[in-house]
Amino acid sequence: MLKLTLKEYLDGKGVTRYELSKRTGIKFQIIDNYYKNKVVRYDSYVLGKICDALDCEISDILTYTKH
Questions:
Q1: Which of 22, 44, 53, 66 has its CA 20 to 30 A from that of 35?
Q2: Burial 17-51 (b: 16+ CB within 10 A, else e)
Q3: Residue 63: pLDDT above 90?
Q4: Contacts with 61 (C-beta within 8 Å, 6 or more apart), sequence order
């Protein structure tokens, strides 16, 4: 199971969803869905832009656990 940990990462870095939206050029509502882990299909473009803006690795904002 994949789980976004963007909320924890942003909270830890003191970055708001609005600020991330501005840094990436991605609409706030899309960032908000990733933040709230409400995404069913992950967009590699969006994940790439988020990682670039936060200067982080994909493993910092996305985790995989086996059932």
A1: 66
A2: beebbeebebeeebbebbbeeebeeeeeebbebbb
A3: yes
A4: 4, 5, 6, 9, 47, 50, 51, 54
In this structure, the dihedral spanned by the alpha carbons of residues 50, 56, 59 and 62, taken in order and rounded to 10 degrees, is: -30
On whether the CB atoms of residues 39 and 4 are closer than 8 A, the answer is yes
Indicate if the pLDDT at residue 32 is higher than 80: yes
If pLDDT is split at 50, 70 and 90, which confidence band does 28 have?
very high
Q: Say yes or no to pLDDT of 67 above 80.
A: no
Token pair 């199971």 in the structure block, residue:
1
CA 52, CA 44: separation in Å to the nearest integer?
12
